[in-house]
Amino acid sequence: MYRNTPPRSTIRLTRRGRLVLIATGAVVAGTAVAVPLLSLRGEGEREPTTLVIPEGWRAGQIYDAVDKALAQPPGTAKKSLAKANLKLPNDAEGNPEGYLFPATYPLERGGRKTTPEALLSFMVDTANKKFNGAPIAAGAQRNALNVYQAVTIASIVQAEAATEADMGKVARVVFNRLERGMPLQMDSTINYALNRSTLRTTGADTKIDSPYNSYQRMGLPPTPIDNPGEAAMRAAINPTPGDWLYFVTVKPGDTRFTNSFEEHRRNVAEFDKNQRNPATAG
């Protein structure tokens, strides 16, 4: 089924040109802009009244941010899932990853501080409004997907694309590989399994026993790997036309897509050179 796929130990599909996920940010017109999220307050300063969830944050990061914003002990938000009664699709099996929609949320309602479960419910309700409307639902159906699968693809796009302009092409690589019976081989799914964010994925990493190991397992991961924004969702249901199977961000602003394994190997070699000599990659 994928005998023409290069050996998995030979080359990896993707390595992004960003070292870490944005730690703090604000959603403005569909893009994340880095701003302080929560900061230490001096005497007399007001407590924050909103919580900003950036595009691409994982559920664990969001739980931590909710705990800090509401001055709760670490782990409180995650524990509140049991009583939050989140309106998640059946495929999610109670896991809200992918449905904690990135946006700005109020920390008070009616003059009273909100609760972790109410805040998480607000995020999921916002995601359902965004995802279950006609454009997304119809787009998913047009691509022979259900909405949950579209969100999962969008989460990969969110993690892998170096820029919003690249999102449609990354989505097309995902579709092309799925249609050809090729493993996705996305480093972002390995990073999710290992709860990290890095450009360096080793051969040993690609052999880990995890349902999120897209080197060893076919198809999509079992859940989204982060919480995608609207641009990534649009890309997931409207991938850019093309025959690409590989991509790599050789240097900031230079992501190369190709259907040729040999060309991809040359691009990856250039990426490796730039990583060893960052001064020459500007």
UniProtKB/TrEMBL annotation:
Pfam (any one): YceG
Keyword line: Cell membrane, Cell wall biogenesis/degradation, Lyase, Membrane, Transmembrane, Transmembrane helix
Catalysed reaction, written as an equation: a peptidoglycan chain = a peptidoglycan chain with N-acetyl-1,6-anhydromuramyl-[peptide] at the reducing end + a peptidoglycan chain with N-acetylglucosamine at the non-reducing end
Residues at the site labelled Important for catalytic activity: E160
Family the UniProt entry places it in: Belongs to the transglycosylase MltG family.
Known EC number: 4.2.2.29
HAMAP family listed in its UniProt record: MltG
Functional summary from the UniProt entry: Functions as a peptidoglycan terminase that cleaves nascent peptidoglycan strands endolytically to terminate their elongation.
Transmembrane segments: none
Entry-linked CDD domains: MltG_like (cd08010)
Name of the protein this chain belongs to: Endolytic murein transglycosylase
